[in-house]
Amino acid sequence: MFHLTFALPALYVLARFVWPLPWAPGGKIALAIAVLVASQYHLWSRLSSGSVFSPEFPRALVLLFNWAFGAIALLAVMQIALDVTTLIVRLFRGGGAIPVGVRYTTAMAAMLLSAVGVYQATRVPPLNDIEIAIPGLPPQFDGYRLLQLTDLHISRLFPKEWTQAVVERSNALGVDLIVVTGDLIDGSFGARRADVEPLRGLRAKDGVWVIPGNHEYFFGYEEWMLQYASLGMQALVNDHTVLNRDGGSLVLAGVTDLSAPRSFHPAPDLSAALEGAPSETPILLLDHQPRNASQAAARGVALQLSGHTHGGMIPGLDRLVARANNGFVSGRYQVGGMTLYVNNGTALWPGFALRLGRPSELTRITLRRASPQDRSPAHAPTSSERTLAPATAG
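Below the sequence we write its predicted C-alpha cells.
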C-alpha cells in the first residue's frame, strides 16, 4: 500500500501527460518506463537497505531520484490544475485539448521547481535568529542564547561532509547551549558511523543535549543513544537537568518520542522528566513531535522546542502535515501560557527531499525576560505567532 500510494502521482502523469503526447510509441514507452522507475524510489530504497528511510545509493543517485520523484509529484499537481481549468473552459466556452506547448511548459516548470526544491532541502541551512520572552526568566538568563538543531537525518544524502559544515557553522554562532531535538540519523550504526562523527565537534558552554526522535527507534535505538553519548552529547530521556548561572536557574527537560512504545521502549513521560525539578523555575522542554504541546502547557512548561514536521516542506502539503500534528507545523505558537517553537528542520528525510517556501534552518534562540504585558493573558501574538488554546490544540 505504501508503494502504491507513492505511485499514484506517476499513474496520473502517465494517463494525462505521457499518453496524450504527440510522440512515436517508442518514445512514450521509454518515458513511461522512466516515470515508473522514478516513482518507485522508495521501493528501490527498501531493496538497498531494508528500509524506505535509508537509501544506500551513491549520493548523486539519491539526489537524482529525489529530483525525478519531486518533478513527477509537482507535474501531477500541475496536470490536475490544467485538467480542471480545461474542463471549466469547455463547460462555459467550449474548446479543444490542452495545447502541446502548454504541456511542455508545465513539464519544464515541474522539473525546474523540483531542482530548486532539492537544492533548498540539501544545502547547509541558513541562520534563523529569533527571540522568545519567558515569564519568570531569571535576570541571569536574559540574553541567554541556545541553538536548536533537529531532523538532521544524516544519511547518504546528508553525509559526513554536510555534517561537518553544519558543525562548523553551529560553533561559529557562539551560543551558550546546543539542543538536538531528534531524528539525527537515517541508517544503521554501521552505515552511518562515519557520517555522524563530526557531531563530536559541537561545542557550547553548557553542553550539547539530545533527545530521540521517531527515526532513532527505526535503526537500533540503544546503539545510537550510546553513540550519541560517546560523541559528547548528553541525552534527556524522560529526564531533566538544571542549568545554573550566577545564582539563577533554568530547567531543561526532554522526553522520548511518541513512537517509542511501538518498539517496546518507554513512552514520553513528562511527569517523570520533571520529577525533582526545582519549583518556580522556568522549564524548557525538548519534545521531538509538537502534537502534545497542550499537555506541556498545562504542566507549566514555559517553552517547548520541537521538530518532526520539516515545516511542511511545500505550501499546501504543510496543511496536511499540520492536520497530523494537532495544527502545529512551522514556527512560533502560543499554547496557553507556553511558547511552542516548531523548527523547520536542519535537514529532512532523504525519501522526499524537497523544500519550496519552507526553508531549513539553524535556529538561534535568544531568551528574554517577559515584560508585564507578555505575562498577561490578554497579550496578543505577534505576526510570527499563532495562538492555539490547550483545549483546541490537543
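Residues 121 and 355 are 5 Å apart (CA to CA).
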